[in-house]
Amino acid sequence: RIMRPDDANVAGNVHGGTILKMIEEAGAIISTRHCNSQAGEPCVAALARVERTDFLSPVCIGEVANVSAEITYTSRHSVEVQVNVMSENILTGAKKVTNKATLWYVPLSLKNVNKVLEVPPIQYARKEQEDEGKKRYEEQKLDRLETKQRNGDVIFPIINPEPHTVGYSQSSLIHLVGPSDCTLLGFVHGGVTMKLMDEVAGIVAARHCKTNIVTASVDAINFHEKIKKGSVITISGRMTFTSNKSMEIEVFVDADPFVDEPRERYRAVSAFFTYVSLSKEGKPLPVPQLLTETEDEKRRFDEGKGRYLQTKAKRQAQEQQAARQ
Amino acid sequence: RIMRPDDANVAGNVHGGTILKMIEEAGAIISTRHCNSQAGEPCVAALARVERTDFLSPVCIGEVANVSAEITYTSRHSVEVQVNVMSENILTGAKKVTNKATLWYVPLSLKNVNKVLEVPPIQYARKEQEDEGKKRYEEQKLDRLETKQRNGDVIFPIINPEPHTVGYSQSSLIHLVGPSDCTLLGFVHGGVTMKLMDEVAGIVAARHCKTNIVTASVDAINFHEKIKKGSVITISGRMTFTSNKSMEIEVFVDADPFVDEPRERYRAVSAFFTYVSLSKEGKPLPVPQLLTETEDEKRRFDEGKGRYLQTKAKRQAQEQQAARQ
Amino acid sequence: RIMRPDDANVAGNVHGGTILKMIEEAGAIISTRHCNSQAGEPCVAALARVERTDFLSPVCIGEVANVSAEITYTSRHSVEVQVNVMSENILTGAKKVTNKATLWYVPLSLKNVNKVLEVPPIQYARKEQEDEGKKRYEEQKLDRLETKQRNGDVIFPIINPEPHTVGYSQSSLIHLVGPSDCTLLGFVHGGVTMKLMDEVAGIVAARHCKTNIVTASVDAINFHEKIKKGSVITISGRMTFTSNKSMEIEVFVDADPFVDEPRERYRAVSAFFTYVSLSKEGKPLPVPQLLTETEDEKRRFDEGKGRYLQTKAKRQAQEQQAARQ
């Protein structure tokens, strides 16, 4: 679809969150279609996880985003979908790859939302495809268990914080979940949640460096708990790490299903977003270093540095491999 | 994309206007891309006309609408686009044709919005395709001239009207044109206008028969004048004709570009919408007859009857032809 | 949240209605949460009244609006909420107070929408806080009774009106109430109604003075009657008074619940909005005087003048008191 002014920031770059929402919608359509392709209980595919994804080039207002999706692996209870986004300038005809994302969905019964149904298996062109898919499946399963334990943290407000500290840029946004945010099952679309997370992360990044900022990448996101229509969700973001030209922001989503079934507030999702700062000409700018004060902040900074170095090493390895081929 | 609660009326049927907006967006993308496919002045394709279109079957919340578009004819300064909409129930896999629409676009220069550029010619598989396209082009050109003259009418308000009279159901809506309603040139997307027109027509129809109503068809719509960002547009609708099971509503769009360049209010678009009334089970219901009071109302009723009988005759001829083949 | 292009008028100033909608959403969340904080029947807090509120400074596209809410008083069946809005320019770090609003909510049972539940009492830090709250409670109760009687007026259309008369700028808007406009109970959010009222009032003001206009204040608004999903609402506005640099516009909301339960059209809300006209540099401009023609228009002008002088006197008294302290 054509990118509109409301999809973009003041510099005209489309929000990463808008792209993430489109990706998730495409993934939900193709996996729901697949899971209902054989006679049996009707179901809706719910997003369980998005793998780490890089934003390779910014999209601008007036460009057309083309989204294509393909199922690449099925386990007994889950579907792996690969989604590609190309942006096209229909005036010049120029096309660029914007995004490649991998998403995992789980089919939930339309009659009993707590029942996970079986997924019809797909046919693989080659045996290796199945083996590689299985390996990815095992890896993500492990990672989901790990993050489930990490999820207990809370963001405390800080009064009169100094510039460039963690407390200075941290931000929260509250959203009341309406009908258009939800699937047929009455739970929030994963894409809606990711769009709000990107909005908060963007505010944190802009507060820190006071320039035009764009989403560079999103770490793997796990959706542990569903969020029901009528809930109030609080999305909080804080900066965890800065390199010379990038910022890492941790975002938490907490849900409060306060009307229907007064249950305790719970952590629904958490993730790391990476942002870069751009000049008016679209060139990357240096980022002010994050000032860490408490022990926890220092620890999180070091952990963020670890993730940063790991990603960098992985990318270099890929580039070398590509050069060799 | 997936149809959401906000796209539909209370009975869960998606508004014809939502479908028209999607059709126009697809048409604008493909024709803008085509008109920029050769080196030259960059341009944006502006909607000039939509041919009469029937809504063959209603779309429901949760279904996916698949839109495909194809360029079927080019004249020197205009592009004909054929857009097909299929609705797909991703739970059952059932697909239905919802809509087939033909739209005409004109390329306007991005630098000088009043300059119409030349359209790169397309290649036809067979000579007859070009000839048939040319015939359609000549026909629509004639029709556009005719409606341009009809456009002078105004809807006068009536105080304390009786049920089932024209004055009882007539309705107006004002809308302030925002950035997201507009193309890169700063003029309202044709699809946005059509969505608002369908909204007003639907309110007129619902006020008349007080039941659940759906769009059955839209007559050809000509876009004579552009509408600028920041304008206030008034969309007015009045019922012109009722058959046993359908209602015809005339809709006018008037624009008021009052902020930037205080110009007189002008008529931008007008069209006829046909609605049917549906029971809870989705069966067509009888429609209360429209009570006409003035000479003008009687004349418009007769003209509406003429259009109704003509369409009916055309459809029967097509069905007989289809049966013979 | 970040203010987007669609939240603002052509000059980049965010609509007062967008702010009012955010304020109401925050109020609804905090009061619904409070009313469900003790075991008992689940309920949703419905807006009963908004006290007069001033827009202290305009908000621009790209700024972040921070909304905070606090419960300041509870009676047996109602909750008083104080909401503060700060706008923050995240590039410069500059913050301004935009708005301070006081809202009254009433808890309605989720099972039986006509049943008003009891409100859990709050604890006051000092006895005086409770006494002042009680005084505010009694005052607003009285005022609500008064406006209930005023509500019978209707706006009649005028044909070919002269510039600067009441008939020239009066405007109506119809809106079909969709799912996203409604609470879990299926009734329109008070904030949605206020946003539409501000939209009509803004169009009236812009038609009168043909410049860029912004909301300066809103008088107390009482919500006497609920509006159900699927209703058509007509929002009408007419200018009642002009001072040298401000315009007062009276806005009515009428509801037509015509589909489910064909009931007579009824007046749901009414209120006074005050607007000012701004130059391109953001300075207040003189406003053309309103030309009153009928006796009713002259009477309403005088009443508007009374409200204007009263507000002016109150503000001056406050400023003197502030200067003395």
Structural overview:
3 copies of one chain form a homotrimer. With 325 residues, chain A is an alpha+beta fold. Chain A has 2 domains: 2-146, Hotdog Thioesterase (Thiol Ester Dehydrase, Chain A); 166-323, Roll (Thiol Ester Dehydrase, Chain A). Chain A has helices at 16-35, 127-150, 166-169, 190-209, 295-324, and strands spanning 43-50, 53-54, 64-74, 79-88, 95-109, 171-176, 212-218, 221-223, 232-242, 247-256, 266-278. In chain A, strands 1, 2, 3, 4, 5, 6, 7, 8, 9, 10 and 11 form an 11-stranded antiparallel β-sheet that branches. In chain A, a hairpin with a 4-residue loop joins strand 3 (64-74) and strand 4 (79-88). The model of chain A has no long low-confidence stretch (mean pLDDT 89). At the B-C interface, strand 6 and helix 4 of B face strand 6 and helix 4 of C.
